[in-house]
Amino acid sequence: MAAGQVRVAVVGLGDIGRGWAALCAAHGWRVAVYDHEGRTQEAALDEIQSRARGMLALVGADAEAVERGVAALRPGRSLLQTCADAEWVIEAVHEDLIAKQKLFEALESAAPKARAVTSSSSTLQAADVAARCRRQDRVLVANPQNPPELIPLVELLPGPTTDRAMLELLKGWLRALGRIPVTLKKPVRGNIAGRIAAAVWREAIQLVLDGAIDVDDLDRAVSVGPALGWAAAGPHLTYRLAAGKRTVAGFLQQVLRTHEEIWPDLAHWNHLEPERQQQLIGMVERAYHDHVDRIRAARDRRLAAILQGLEMSKRE
Hints:
By secondary structure, this protein is of the alpha/beta class. It has helices spanning 15-26, 38-59, 63-72, 79-83, 97-110, 126-129, 164-176, 191-209, 215-223, 226-232, 235-243, 248-262, 274-288, 292-315, and strands at residues 8-11, 31-34, 74-75, 88-91, 116-119, 139-144, 153-158, 180-183. Helix 1 crosses helix 3 (63-72) and helix 11 (235-243) packs across helix 12.
């Protein structure tokens, strides 16, 4: 194995697991994959290979590395066979605490060489996931965005006994994969990106249900409006830059006053009633049905173009 590469095992082959595997394979890393559902695993292999090769056109991945990684991709017949030699085990099973605890307990013996065992969880804490483990020092949450092979953010949430040297090692691995790790200082439900997404989506739901705007126009308004600005700067930096040479305190107080007029009118419900859920589902289906595959491909191209633009701007 070439220098700088890591032996990876991905357990759980839903969309997130497939994205993790595609990302690692596209960098030429040796990846073993496993899902307890045999049919899911069989179907996943072709998609992982396709998504890894797709990174050639999307982000200019190294063709030799991609083909090396795709050739080395292997399905596991058991958890032990998949994880026995792995240095990094990536868990990506469904968001069920008991299922994750049982899996991490099994990984105690199935992954003896793993230096890091990470959970792709958006809602659970490392301490809870690792509750049945003796080796809790190598466990933490490493939550990607979807699709993991394109969006670079990975949120890291260590547990109280997570080894800090291992955390730094994992950050290095993630950076080698072109990811941008951010470390949470304390657990918060939904992590950071998940909380922001939940807040924005609740308001987006309310606006379309209220008839203020159609689903597709709402998505355009977000994607080419605040989301585009946040891609370049994030919310706090956006306002700091807008302040220019004015005092930060004065400008932010002005912005706060403007938002304080809007905040009381924002959606504040915590549960969407079944009939409203069905209304929303119908609106989304009518907006996008029969176009999902074409739109997904276009989304991936746009994501890749944005990321390439951001990367090029760093060199200027």
